[in-house]
Description:
Elements: H1 3-14, H2 18-24, H3 31-37, H4 45-54, H5 60-65, H6 83-119
Amino acid sequence: MTIESRLQQLIDALNVSVLEFARQLGERRGEKVYHILHGRLKPRYDTIEKILVAYPQVNADWLLRGEGLMFKQLDSPSAAITTEERLRNMEFLLFQLTERITLLQQTNDQLLAEITALKSR
């Protein structure tokens, strides 16, 4: 999953518009965020930093690398995670697992087809 798609998921999970999200980062208009979301720009370090400052509940590892949960855990002092955010985290993890299962099934099907083709030779 790309950082652009994670950013879109974050905006959706926060239930804010792209314009509101951009304004929280100190942008007057949402053009820069729109360009990032559509792959025309890559987010720079300062943009990532602004996101993490504006939304301290966001897990930096998830945003940067797609690792872990979207939002920080409760035991983190700077994270006040709500039940709704926890549910979103669980939905996201289920989505990731479903994607992985689908990919594994496709790989399995391809391998079975190759084995069958080799046996018939």
